[in-house]
Amino acid sequence: MADLEWLIRMKNALDYMESKMTEPMRIEDVARVAHVSPFHFQRMFSMLTGVTVADYIRKRRLTLAAQELAISKIRVLDVALKYGYDSPEAFAKAFRKAHGLTPSAAREPGVQLKAFPRLSFHLSLKGDQEMEYKIVEKAAFTVIGKSMEVTTRDGENFRRIPEFWNECNADGTSDKLIQLGTDPNWLGICMGMDMEKELLSYWIAVEGTPETNPEGYETAVVPAASWAVFTSVGPMPHAIQQVWQRIFQEWFPGTGYEHTGGPEFELYPPGDPSAEDYVCEVWIPVMKK
């Protein structure tokens, strides 16, 4: 069973990460344990858990560091170095952000510390609802739009992207872009996803041509790819969020496909996004393992 095999691989990767909390850790080595590419592992991990791999490792290390400070007399400097920090200052800054107090204060009797528990994955056997998709071969295409760089740390992208859409709708950007596009569909594109730095470039865009005058907007080329296309039916954003969840919880583990690491996007046709019958799509670049 593909789902069970994927579950075992993810468990092995978590075990590996936990065993390396006091050592240098390369994402390439973690992904190798899961038998997938570094990008695919990080994308799957963040979609399944709600935290990035880097954030998970950071929070686990700070949890273990706090526990060690609370029960031992080890020097703060030694704890900082043990858990991968180059200086006491960098460690103190990260520790204060995670626990709300200094490393030294963690030693005080009765002090409250925050613990980020070790994650575990469980197999959920659903099978009551088929997941329809199609594979589309699409040549490279030009997009015209407006972009912003956003961090994925602490779920900041989930807050900023809806705000970005509200801003573009309010100032007329969305309507102006549609006038420039070759079809009436808006695209919400995640480009340049850097899992290590926890950054991505998010675009609100339309498909254009190389000859289109962008009229002051940005342009980019989305490379040719094989795309897995999934349809969402229902009011935004709940319906499409469920589709994303099922893609990473059910579709990827149950198929022989892997994310290529290229741009991915949502396609929004004209209509009422709050309607029960609103139809939009998720496009993910994939390759066979």
UniProtKB/TrEMBL annotation:
Keyword Membrane: no
Alphabetized UniProt keyword annotations: DNA-binding, Transcription, Transcription regulation
InterPro entries (alphabetical): AraC_E-bd, GyrI-like, Homeodomain-like_sf, HTH_AraC, HTH_AraC-typ_CS, MarA-like, Reg_factor_effector_dom_sf, Tscrpt_reg_AraC-type_HTH
SUPFAM superfamilies recorded: Homeodomain-like, Probable bacterial effector-binding domain
Short name of one Pfam family: HTH_18
Residues spanning the membrane: none
Domain HTH araC/xylS-type residues, every copy: 11-109
PANTHER family, per database record: RIGHT ORIGIN-BINDING PROTEIN (PTHR47504)
Protein name in the entry: AraC family transcriptional regulator
